[in-house]
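Task 17 of the worksheet. Students: predict the tertiary structure of the chain below and write it out as structure tokens. Keep your answer in the requested format; marks are given for formatting as well as content.
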Amino acid sequence: MIRQALKAQFDGERTAVWGDGSVIELFIVTDVKLYREGLTQALEQADSFRVVGAASRIAQLDADMRTRERAVLLFDVQTPDEGAILEAVLTANPNMRAVAVGVTENEPEIIAWTEAGASGYVTRDGSVAELIATIEAVARDEFTCPPRITAALMHRVAMLATEQHLIRRPQARLSGRELEILYLLEDGLSNQEIAHRLFIALATVKNHVHNILDKLHLRTRAEAAAWARCQRINGTQKITSNS
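Model answer:
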């Protein structure tokens, strides 16, 4: 059935999509033999595709992939423990493109495969047409994925941009009391809770928070907490005391 469905997509004239008009060479990795053989047989029906390797693990194809100037790797994300190997293979083969097949719309999973080097995605319920279009798109050096996956990736990019923005804040010299309050903000305490913890008036806490935001050029207490957290994570010494 897979073969028939894919063959129907290839009926009629099709052209190769590498920039120089050459055929797209494919590697297929999945530990499900039936799936692996079915995709191989089906994709070979297209004049624009040539399956040059298929295996249950990426490492089994590493030597063959190193001999190719460029190719597209289709890998089943359900195959266990392949992320680190994929990253190493793509680093060693910069002209290789990878398509993750069978992904869920779980954000951590998507981020992990993107960081490993995947250039395209086909979800578990993706169609044959989507698979073909994704292969062709990554061969043109286009990053492609379903809209919900795109949204997850954009959310991650925005988070990273915010973190980097906070890390690049200028050095601030805070008083000892301001440092105490900054650490409590990082712990998620409210102004009232900070007042009780430090035995000071609520108005005093508010004044200190205002001074912290002003010195760090931040707008909200949440940004101040995030800034402090970034300094800890990155091991910087930007939080210093002037008392």
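Marker's comment: Confidence is low (pLDDT under 50) at residues 1-16, 236-240. Residues 172 and 215 are 6 Å apart (CA to CA).
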